[in-house]
Design goal:
alpha+beta; three-stranded antiparallel β-sheet; five-stranded antiparallel β-sheet; D-amino Acid Aminotransferase, Chain A, domain 1
């Protein structure tokens, strides 16, 4: 987006306000803004543009209720998943922002979406963040270097050990391929 008309087109592209505007360099919920109106969305996007920041504009999924799902994909399989619930009054579900983690049962569609998302990025190990929307799972992020915070406790699985075993099994046979990506 380089001019005001572009900003309006971007907002329309994701279904209009409210929208979530994410600073791509941000982590742990820093630089993530909920713009509840068209004018607020335009102002936030233009402000980030004025700073020459790289941003992502996403549809706000109200029915997610401040929760998301982190799927940990290793070698083409979801090995662990957790629900992250934002703190009261917080739309961001990051654990660093006071959110909580709990075990969740994935639907087959959520499992498939997470695996396909990691594969589309050429990743053998990925943290795929999904939202439960009325129209099905929505991919919010695919993390090439996902943290283990919360996932092992919530899932009761040794995710680090599963990653190490995958690497050991595939490094010996030369089976890993990341297509030049993470």
């Amino acid at each position: 987006a380089n001019k005001p008309d572009d900003v309006q087109d971007i907002i329309k592209l994701v279904g209009g306000a409210p929208v979530v505007v994410k600073l791509l360099e941000g982590t742990q919920g820093i630089g993530v803004v909920l713009a509840e109106t068209q004018k607020a969305a335009e102002s936030v996007i233009e402000g980030f543009m004025g700073l020459k920041a790289n941003i992502l504009v996403q549809e706000f999924i109200k029915e997610a209720g401040g929760a998301d799902i982190r799927c940990f994909v290793v070698g083409g399989k979801v090995v662990a998943a957790m629900k992250r619930q934002g703190a009261p009054g917080e739309f961001r579900s990051n654990l660093h922002r006071g959110g909580s983690a709990s075990l969740i049962r994935l639907t087959p569609e959520e499992r498939s979406t997470a695996v396909r998302s990691a594969q589309a990025m050429g990743l053998n190990v990925a943290g795929v963040d999904l939202l439960r929307a009325n129209h099905g799972p929505v991919v919010m992020e695919v993390n090439s270097s996902p943290g283990l915070e919360g996932i092992e406790a919530a899932s009761q699985k040794d995710v680090a050990g599963l990653i190490i075993r995958f690497i050991e099994d595939h490094a010996k046979s030369g089976k890993t391929s990341t297509k030049g990506k993470g």
